[in-house]
Amino acid sequence: xxxxxxxxxxxxxxxxxxxxxxxxxxxxxxxxxxxxxxxxxxxxxxxxxxxxxxxxxxxxxxxxxxxxxxxxxxxxxxxxxxxxxxxxxxxxxxxxxxxxxxxxxxxxxxxxxxxxxxxxxxxxxxxxxxxxxxxxxxxxxxxxxxxxxxxxxxxxxxxxxxxxxxxxxxxxxxxxxxxxxxxxxxxxxxxxxxxxxxxxxxxxxxxxxxxxxxxxxxxxxxxxxxxxxxxxxxxxxxxxxxxxxxxxxxxxxxxxxxxxxxxxxxxxxxxxxxxxxxxxxxxxxxxxxxxxxxxxxxxxxxxxxxxxxxxxxxxxxxxxxxxxxxxxxxxxxxxxxxxxxxxxxxxxxxxxxxxxxxxxxxxxxxxxxxxxxxxxxxxxxxxxxxxxxxxxxxxxxxxxxxxxxxxxxxxxxxxxxxxxxxxxxxxxxxxxxxxxxxxxxxxxxxxxxxx
Length: 451
Fold this sequence. Notes:
The protein is of the alpha+beta class. Strands 1, 2, 5, 8, 9, 12, 13, 16, 19, 20 and 23 form an eleven-stranded mixed β-sheet that branches. The model is unreliable at 1-26 (pLDDT under 50). It is built from eight helices and 23 strands. The radius of gyration is 23 Å and the shape is globular. The protein has three domains: 2-113, no CATH class; 139-280, Sandwich (Jelly Rolls), CATH 2.60.120; 285-431, Jelly Rolls (Sandwich), CATH 2.60.120. The protein has helices at residues 2-5, 21-24, 32-43, 61-64, 68-76, 102-113, 139-142, 428-449, and strands at residues 94-95, 147-150, 154-156, 163-169, 177-186, 194-204, 210-220, 226-227, 232-236, 241-248, 262-265, 267-273, 285-293, 304-305, 310-318, 323-331, 336-345, 350-357, 368-370, 377-378, 383-391, 406-407, 418-425.
């Protein structure tokens, strides 16, 4: 999973004395050829290559060396790779985790402090096979998508107001299928102007009218895709229709902004399915993805952030049956800067921290997918507590204008307050079975550590 979990640039620096003991304890000098090149090749080059979205290339020492101080700064501050998820708070076992290990950060910091040496010429850092920047993210694991659903084509001007496209597409599916993985991918330069691309599934009722069945997936800038854990089915029904809701921002926004007209803007959904008989197996539970709104903190029913001010929103949701939380993806726009997920247990009064993102940015959206054996398991009646924070001051680097009042709305300059959460719906028997399996695994782990 390393190639999936890591993707971007190894950069860092804040504390140059930060945690270097593990590096200094090594006998050999930290050089590009012996240590750093491998880290960069595995974590950065996927974006920082010719044709990639990174603004510079990091495919060899000559390309990396001029950027070494900036790499050190960004990596030490955990700004790169761009995966904002707090360490030491809540669940740390994630699928698709781009964060560098502390020893990797330490090695880069030490390397730059020592002058960024090349190292022995007879050692060549291993370069993994690079993914084509336009290739599907899960192609190396699952091959090409089983189904691709494309939007209509649009030409997006270099400047102007936000644009939206809302359309139905018939994917031509003739039988129910369980989704294994899904990715939304704007074609080519379209990534610069696609702010988000939501996709709903609709089915025909007995009267021949289209009714919403559920959410297929959600895309926002930087999102890698979604993986469904084994034992669940997120269903794509036969004869269903996909309804696109695509928000485009002329000129682009974020790190991939082009600032020019984008012709033939097309967004595609790639779907990988389980085998036909997958859902017929025992112990297969339904999973869905939903938008969970945060409305506590609104003024007179509206999200409102004053100039040079702050605000916070929170939302609550409970279930009348046990569930497992499979992923958490906060959503906001340019003023949002932090989010968290907690679980409140009414019977005990205890609140459990699940996830904290203290340096959230709209330029990189991530669906934080919990490892199945560590995903939050929630009894009936427990309460999801979702919180988000907003900074409308000049201290927020994403803020285009701190003098403006900011309202809740769909435009890029407006704000939103919700989270996308994937939930597996369990029955009592399934809940107790997963609990028992986790206790047994924990006991085996403790027994294995006994001398």
